[in-house]
Prior knowledge:
The protein is an alpha/beta fold. Helix content is 31%, strand content 19%. About 5% of the residues have low confidence.
Amino acid sequence: xxxxxxxxxxxxxxxxxxxxxxxxxxxxxxxxxxxxxxxxxxxxxxxxxxxxxxxxxxxxxxxxxxxxxxxxxxxxxxxxxxxxxxxxxxxxxxxxxxxxxxxxxxxxxxxxxxxxxxxxxxxxxxxxxxxxxxxxxxxxxxxxxxxxxxxxxxxxxxxxxxxxxxxxxxxxxxxxxxxxxxxxxxxxxxxxxxxxxxxxxxxxxxxxxxxxxxxxxxxxxxxxxxxxxxxxxxxxxxxxxxxxxxxxxxxxxxxxxxxxxxxxxxxxxxxxxxxxxxxxxxxxxxxxxxxxxxxxxxxxxxxxxxxxxxxxxxxxxxxxxxxxxxxxxxxxxxxxxxxxxxxxxxxxxxxxxxxxxxxxxxxxxxxxxxxxxxxxxxxxxxxxxxxxxxxxxxxxxxxxxxxxxxxxxxxxxxxxxxxxxxxxxxxxxxxxxxxxxxxxxxxxxxxxxxxxxxxxxxxxxxxxxxxxxxxxxxxxxxxxxxxxxxxxxxxxxxxxxxxxxxxxxxxxxxxxxxxxxxxxxxxxxxxxxxxxxxxxxxxxxxxxxxxxxxxxxxxxxxxxxxxxxxxxxxxxxxxxxxxxxxxxxxxxxxxxxxxxxxxxxxxxxxxxxxxxxxxxxxxxxxxxxxxxxxxxxxxxxxxxxxxxxxxxxxxxxxxxxxxxxxxxxxxxxxxxxxxxxxxxxxxxxxxxxxxxxxxxxxxxxxxxxxxxxxxxxxxxxxxxxxxxxxxxxxxxxxxxxxxxxxxxxxxxxxxxxxxxxxxxxxxxxxxxxxxxxxxxxxxxxxxxxxxxxxxxxxxxxxxxxxxxxxxxxxxxxxxxxxxxxxxxxxxxxxxxxxxxxxxxxxxxxxxxxxxxxxxxxxxxxxxxxxxxxxxxxxxxxxxxxxxxxxxxxxxxxxxxxxxxx
Length: 901
């Protein structure tokens, strides 16, 4: 059953357009014809989830399957969550507006150690039991009235347990160590999902047709490589995990898939997102072998995407979406040998469309003029490098594969190519680190500044992020930890050093949350009760800075109540640390033992049953190499490191040689020619009334691009399309009389422009009329004189139609109605509203809630940009002044904007 959300998604909540589900390129398949109905649920706010590339890819992959439907859901904001609880409305999927409990399967992305509390929040809002045991049982669960808040009331869910969907998780954190979250999920999808999820869908469809029980269905799923069903396994006293039955595998394989760029094209939100651009994956996996890097270990082997497929996807994607920016994504974009060729080819093809390319953090040792050319231009983006450590010794310990000379060459190339500000990532708390290594971060930054000086150039600015090293499962450093006190001391050491260095901004990550990430990320099944209790105590959105204090308090209390604070203290005090004193190392050498704690390395770990392909013995050996500061070469370009990945189960590295780099055709030069000016009248109706004015401006930019209309640009450093909206419309208000001016570089037939524009616009933004105007004519925003509104007003008392008409007549008869207005500077001034009211008419009245009456009132009032406005709220003030009762503004509709001559 479709959830009635119209009264919940209103203009009084933050960014209501988040929840509309009407994005461009959204796939809306018929509910009744689908055999299996999925929801991909991203446990973050919409702006984060809707722009996540994995979310987009899997959404498109699942909707490409016959008889399978995939909808989406996101963590609602606090305001909507409160409304859902107050009205006993279940959390819904954004496209179908159906309750999450109605679907067959819900998939959560778990990419952050502390993100599971958001998942519990979403399950609770949906009225779905939090654990697989509760979902299998017959006891109705109690759903909290206000989430995890302590001391609040509860209510009973009316859903029956047998109807609950299967709940699963995927993502990096779920793949690396699912044990802290094992109680909450029916199964875990390990590794890449492009091939795995369709296989799961087929098994579900067959099981649904044959009427399999939940347990037998999960048993069938457990036979699929990459599917881990926690309830079929148990934890031993030593923390290791073993099967409870012989018909499930002892170790569960991580799945590996070949990236397909075409699936990256989709879901163009109407609100601004975190990654508001087209993103295309060019290489999956990384074999650099950085010893701290979990993604590098969990995504092997490295697989390049064919350059022509990347180019084709970008060109098609930019035409289909209308974005003005695209990004090429990889763990190490610079290791994609075709990067300069692909980037230059796209830049040349889209040269005249003011489109820019961004790259994530990249290898500084591979940054050269070719990469600088594809990144530079009129809208030159930021540049980010990750040296990770401040000394050569530390970079060798972590196997960064970066020398001081390479670091200087890359930074200097960027400076010579016009970058004045560069972002650098460093870490502290790395194994074997000394104070000299910590201070070396400041010394390295100062050295780079000295080397990049020149006449007529500003000093090179650096924006530094210095994070606390958090050891991750399946890495050589998984046996290491650092005390919180040591992190604080090293941060203070760096603060002192950077006080002497100008043009550097330094950001440190919070040491408290680092310890929590470590504790949960390397935990076992005992932590499920901690995760749940932390959520009950109010933890959530833990990666957001403003919630850190509350989150830290909740997690700390949950750990203490689970009697695991002793274990947390081990992490917090850095006791899980195999890098002891250097003196001990020399003693070990005398005793001819490579590592005195070798027996500790063989202790079972909670994630040993997850087969990522990397041999645990190789991780131990690489740990020993780290102690010796020995480098392991990148096996994509040099010899095999024998990590254990390459083979039948996981495939091999795929490295594609670069094609010839096309000749640089030159930077984008904004075409400022103004050959034609068109004025467009349009409406804003239905769902689009909840889209903000800034989002509407972005929409017009993308629509013009998709329609291939020859829009003129402004000049300057940030050229913008010459599209001017006459005025803003209040959020939630509808309209049939908005105006926008467009300036074109070449003349276009008015009918052609109308047809192309209307074809690309959402149906709730109709185009009514297009007229050509003189190039020298004033802009519509300068010509505004008045506006006509139709407003719906409710009286908060019993009234009659005659009274309404009398009030209208009284207002019209008055010459003065004074209103106190506060200026932007905070000063108070009196204005006569009656001077600004030109026409007023009662259109109709009808009975409303609680025997009160509402009326539709049309008025024409001043709407000049010099501040002489008559707003709908001021009509209410006039009504209250003459009637002596309170009124409520129910709806605003702008009929038309009237321009002066």
